[in-house]
Design a protein that fits this description.
four-stranded mixed sheet; about 20% strand; globular
């Protein structure tokens, strides 16, 4: 399973999103590393196996913008559980 937090430089919400994802991975007992990547992408975005836990943002145009739909604990854990089932 590939878990990433994608953020733009200086995103004020990125650290909290990264902490949330790491907590969810730990709580679910999932082995793996949560990576962080800086990119021109709505920030913060959580990708599980390349899928945005909140659904695809905008039109895909590269941007250094804050997300209005910040990833939630429920969405992150649901995505992690689904990915775990796909990996079985």
């Amino acid at each position: 399973m590939r878990v990433e937090v994608v953020r733009h430089e200086g995103c004020p919400l990125a650290a909290a999103a990264l902490d949330l994802v790491r907590e969810c991975v730990h709580e679910l007992g999932i082995d793996g590393v949560v990576t962080e990547r800086v990119a021109r992408y709505p920030s913060p975005t959580v990708l599980v196996d390349g899928r945005d836990v909140m659904g695809a943002p905008g039109d895909g145009t590269p941007t250094d913008a804050c997300r209005l739909d910040v990833p939630t604990r429920e969405r992150v854990t649901d995505a992690l559980r689904s990915a775990s089932l796909r990996d079985e």
